[in-house]
């Protein structure tokens, strides 16, 4: 792993800006590599603001339950960079990743390219070399100018719920953000549209018409998914499915599961793949996606929590994600009441006030902590003041460990429910500190 970390560090120096959206640099590099993006199995391209990772995980679980070989590209990683690239069902090996990165570095020469672009090129190169039935490709940022948007005609494009995030790059206008996300639409490629605000759905439909993309399969018009009597009910023009609830917790995962089912049923209808109802059910029960409302039940950090406490971890980091997370925690409170305490670290680029407002009246307090692995982390003292202004009592700590120690000293009648949240980077730090193994 030391060699991989060394080359990743070198690659990060090829371009002075971490994020510089555009496709010309990547197309040039891919040309030098023999255009591997044109040699892939059918591609499912996933964009949106919230739920991209969970939806991709659900897609993979269902496809693999059907016995298919699946390549997956996601970002960011939590603990190990290899999490970003899954080859035919397995995390990329250190040897294969190193060889691909070295090949990309050699092909690039002294060309200017961003870290995400050259690592995306490495993933596409690997996908072109290893046989598989399908590729799940998750957009990094935006859509139109994202490095993943080099596939000429995906088998399926998907837009998960769109909200304000990365405003410094995408702006704050929802219709404009939707237009950027819809940049992945291609003529003749079908589109799954998840739950959206009216202005977003209208913008997506306009872009689809302009690009002659589609057909569109729109949430609440062409398909729907909901919980009923402890089961997931999915319905489209081809019928109704009575399924188990997804293993991933939260009502928002009902919609994410619905998007995944809608996409795969549409692909099955087109004859591109086989998909049984049994595979869908099995995928729902077996899906894993670390750092998304994940309960930690052992490990060093768990041992530091108050005796009998529940310890939860989530990487959601914008106001919309906060609302969905708060709804999930409120549902947990209804089913199993416990006092909720939060440990939160965020980046300066996020909207802490909007995030904390979702937890007003739900969380007893917040202890803010630094995101140690990032140079642009929000100062815990400033973050605590923003939580207080949003209506949630807050104080600052120097680390997650110190926050857990502070919570352990509070006298209480019932064991608490503790949520560590606010950043995927913080989630990665927590998983690493707690000794969690990712497969």
UniProtKB/TrEMBL annotation:
Reactions this protein catalyses: (6S)-5,6,7,8-tetrahydrofolyl-(gamma-L-Glu)(n) + L-glutamate + ATP = (6S)-5,6,7,8-tetrahydrofolyl-(gamma-L-Glu)(n+1) + ADP + phosphate + H(+); (6R)-5,10-methylenetetrahydrofolyl-(gamma-L-Glu)(n) + L-glutamate + ATP = (6R)-5,10-methylenetetrahydrofolyl-(gamma-L-Glu)(n+1) + ADP + phosphate + H(+); 10-formyltetrahydrofolyl-(gamma-L-Glu)(n) + L-glutamate + ATP = 10-formyltetrahydrofolyl-(gamma-L-Glu)(n+1) + ADP + phosphate + H(+); 7,8-dihydropteroate + L-glutamate + ATP = 7,8-dihydrofolate + ADP + phosphate + H(+)
Superkingdom assignment: Bacteria
PROSITE patterns per UniProt: FOLYLPOLYGLU_SYNT_2 (PS01012)
SUPFAM superfamilies per UniProt: MurD-like peptide ligases, catalytic domain, MurD-like peptide ligases, peptide-binding domain
Pathway assigned in UniProt: Cofactor biosynthesis; tetrahydrofolate biosynthesis; 7,8-dihydrofolate from 2-amino-4-hydroxy-6-hydroxymethyl-7,8-dihydropteridine diphosphate and 4-aminobenzoate: step 2/2; Cofactor biosynthesis; tetrahydrofolylpolyglutamate biosynthesis
Key word Lyase present: no
Cited function: Functions in two distinct reactions of the de novo folate biosynthetic pathway. Catalyzes the addition of a glutamate residue to dihydropteroate (7,8-dihydropteroate or H2Pte) to form dihydrofolate (7,8-dihydrofolate monoglutamate or H2Pte-Glu). Also catalyzes successive additions of L-glutamate to tetrahydrofolate or 10-formyltetrahydrofolate or 5,10-methylenetetrahydrofolate, leading to folylpolyglutamate derivatives.
Protein name according to UniProt: Dihydrofolate synthase/folylpolyglutamate synthase
